[in-house]
Specification:
single chain; about 80 residues; mainly alpha; 2 helices; globular
Length: about 80
């Protein structure tokens, strides 16, 4: 299971090197280390590259809105990347 606050210890897609970007389920995505988290990480890395090239674009889609069932159960949305 995912430990709350674990995103604080996961690296962002950018690095100290201007031409090196990180991608993978282990990077900070706001999602746990899953296939979906890995795909999301790739989108976030692509956004960082486009931003650096002067062509900012949103590739990563936002999370779906909470459903009535989720609201009824009182479940909270996942942590968002900082």
């Amino acid at each position: 299971s995912v430990t709350p606050g674990s995103d604080l210890h996961r690296p962002d897609q950018t690095t100290e090197f201007s031409n090196l970007f990180l991608s993978g389920d282990w990077t900070c995505t706001g999602w746990p280390a899953t296939m979906e988290g890995a795909v999301r990480s790739g989108y976030l890395a692509a956004e960082k590259i486009l931003q650096q090239w002067g062509n900012p674009a949103t590739i990563c889609q936002s999370d779906l809105p909470r459903s009535r069932l989720t609201n009824w159960l009182g479940l909270l949305p996942s942590e968002k990347p900082g």
